Request: fold
Amino acid sequence: MSSWFKRKEKGIQTATEEKKDTPKGLWYKSPTGKIVESEDLAKNFYVSPENDYHVRIGSKEYFEILFDDNKFKELDEKLSAKDPLKFVDTKKYSERLKAAQQKTKLKDAVRTAVGKSMGKELVIACMDFSFIGGSMGSVVGEKISRAIDVAKKKKVPFLMISKSGGARMMEAALSLMQLAKTSAKLAQLAEAKIPYISLCTDPTTGGTTASYAMLGDINIAEPGALIGFAGPRVVKDTVGKDLPEGFQTSEFLKEHGFLDFISHRRDLKKKINQYIDLITNQPLRA
Reply:
């Protein structure tokens, strides 16, 4: 091996192939520059302890936080998208689906489950942004609709955790139909007088915001979440005016009446269940 690799003159003897990389995920750096150990981050509900920054998480982590002892029955877990339009942009949609499934180990951008939260049954649908930007395709709409049916049949509350970039363009009108489909299912849930809680997380945008994300009996969000329909540039070009700073944050939306309250992630389980007890006229759980 050459001296360039050994660098004997500086006393460094380790060959390149013998060097050990730092294990991935050992440290996390938040967008604000704070460094935290991944283990400490998980213990703190995936919130940076120094600056309270809420790290983006997926269905796996939310189920851990909200279901008692992380025990639940997953619904329609094998439901997977097709490519009815044979859509192609820079690559085939079918290839994008396959790549996303292999990378994320998910079937699509939402997982649904039923289990107990603080001792009482709850149906949860949670979106995963890691799967094609949490885009809302036919499978997302179908799984949410079926989860609502389960909540209606069991007469238990339904919680929707949104995290999405909007409609899935590769499914065109089939994707847009999910807005009406899920909204109609939620109307049926309302008629049955079953509570629906909508939790908006970072980001909640596009068709998701235009449908089920803003139709909750109570709409809540995590601190600092981006919530809106279109991006700031598009909105500015449309209205032709400068926009207030932070106008698409959860704090701004709460101030202007679009949200009922904002909850720190460590308090989510307790606050969601207290609301359910309140609306169903049950004794509040501690």
Notes: The radius of gyration is 22 Å.
